[in-house]
Design goal:
single chain; alpha/beta; Rossmann fold; Alpha-Beta Plaits; 2 domains; 4-stranded antiparallel beta sheet
């Protein structure tokens, strides 16, 4: 098997009937940074936890470095490192004690742990604080220590679940630099994120996931090129603008016209979107259509997400947050 990670027809259904991952398949090349991009609740964390063995899949096959994780979980455990969304370090221990304890989980010799720990703590700028209790660390320092601990046994594959969630810009940038260094050293990295700029800046390839399904998978640049040139989004005073839309579809430079959620229309223009806008306003006057808002922007991964799901990542997160609040309210009412 020539891929670092192979996932075939993976499904995960929780005991309450929620289908979190819906028959997804993908592979990750050796030495690449592979990203799962999507809003909270899209199935990213469930996927990563299932792939590394923290959750048992309902169906499907998973291979890490050619090892069948379901048949040989211990052997698969040795080739992977994992840092979760929430830091798993013990704040009652020192930085060195945390990393040493992690090495013992992998049955490493003390001398090897000491050598690797010094190297990692220096790499992450924590060597001078190695004997300090973690409870005195900032959030960024804890995250760096957490990733360092995941690397103590020198895994071939590193899994990072939302590695920069809640961190300030400076710390996030530092984590990005570490991830790039890991790649330069030949490590395979699988990360989940809902930060568009993070996926764009780091990932060799990105899988866009929504409601447990992979909607698109390719290089960030290739995904954005699917959108075309410039993207114009418009809203109208009138509910029925079908005749106007049919007419503008005839313009050769316009590649796609689609209605998104919340009454927003997206218009993909091959190029020179700023020159197209006056033409669209002129045609709107001819059809008696009133444009209430217009926006021009270059393609982003959020546009790709909108293309495949009909909404932006922020809108998807907002919808899921509202749904979560409603479910909590219903539980309270039942009590």
């Amino acid at each position: 098997m020539n891929e670092a990670i192979v996932v075939e027809n993976l499904k995960k259904v929780y005991s309450n009937g929620v289908e979190a991952v819906r028959d997804i398949s993908f592979s990750v090349h050796y030495g690449e940074i592979f990203g799962f991009l999507g809003p909270n609740g899209a199935g990213k964390s469930t996927t990563i936890k299932t792939v590394i063995g923290l959750l048992k899949p309902t169906e499907g096959k998973i291979f890490l470095d050619g090892i069948d994780t379901l048949k040989d979980p211990y052997k698969a455990r040795l080739v992977k490192g994992y840092a979760s969304q929430e830091t798993a370090v013990d704040d009652r221990l020192t930085a060195y004690e945390n990393i040493y304890l992690q090495g013992k989980y992998f049955h490493m010799e003390s001398s090897e742990i000491e050598k690797n720990a010094e190297k990692l703590l220096k790499m992450f700028g924590l060597w001078e604080r190695r004997n300090a209790l973690v409870e005195t660390f900032s959030g960024g320092m804890m995250k760096r220590l957490d990733i360092a601990a995941a690397l103590i046994h020198q895994p071939k594959i590193l899994f990072l679940d939302e590695p920069t969630l809640g961190l300030d810009i400076q710390t996030r940038s530092a984590i990005w630099d570490y991830i790039r260094k890991f790649k330069e050293n030949g490590m395979t990295i699988f990360l989940t994120t809902h930060y568009l700029e993070e996926a764009d800046a780091l990932c060799d390839r990105v899988a866009i996931i929504d409601k447990g399904k992979i909607m698109a998978l390719d290089r960030p640049g290739a995904l954005k090129s699917q959108i075309g040139g410039d993207l114009i989004t418009m809203t109208f005073k009138e509910d029925d603008v079908s005749k106007y839309l049919e007419k503008i579809k005839e313009i050769p430079e316009i590649k796609e016209v689609a209605r998104m959620e919340n009454g927003v229309y997206s218009i993909v223009v091959e190029k020179n979107g700023d020159e197209m806008i006056p033409r669209l306003f002129k045609m709107a006057d001819e059809f008696g259509v009133h444009i209430t808002s217009v926006r021009l922007k270059r393609p982003t991964l959020d546009d790709v997400y909108m293309k495949y799901t009909g909404r932006t990542i922020r809108e998807a997160e907002s919808t899921r947050d509202e749904g979560r609040k409603m479910r909590m309210m219903k539980r309270r009412m039942k009590r």
